[in-house]
Design the sequence.
């Protein structure tokens, strides 16, 4: 379950920001998770609650913003939606499709006190 290491990475970012910016409590955290990032949303949400215990973000509300997978078909040149990395082009059925979006996971912002 790599979601725990991802949640611990988010905790480290938050703790570093708290030390740098001087806030003592995080009320909410917004995280973007791409459809092609390989991150299981439900597992990450569970791990987030565990990883934030006894830190400045303990009890913080997590908001996950899902971003769709996107790609560019190298056969027809059009942008296409992807639900998996190896999907064919939705327009022409061709391959390969170069993945152009939906692979990232990032912290967007924090609401702090």
Sequence:
């Amino acid at each position: 379950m790599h979601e725990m290491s991802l949640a611990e990475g988010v905790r480290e970012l938050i703790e570093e920001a708290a030390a740098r910016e001087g806030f003592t409590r995080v009320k909410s955290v917004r995280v973007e998770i791409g459809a092609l990032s390989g991150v299981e949303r439900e597992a990450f949400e569970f791990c987030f609650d565990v990883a934030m215990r006894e830190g400045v973000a303990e009890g913080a509300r997590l908001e996950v913003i899902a971003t769709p997978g996107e790609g560019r078909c190298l056969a027809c040149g059009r942008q296409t939606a992807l639900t998996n990395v190896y999907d064919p082009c939705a327009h022409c059925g061709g391959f390969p499709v170069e993945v152009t979006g939906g692979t990232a996971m990032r912290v967007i912002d924090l609401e702090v006190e």
Observations:
- The chain has a mean pLDDT of 96.
- The beta strands are 26-34, 61-67, 69-73, 79-82, 97-101, 105-112.
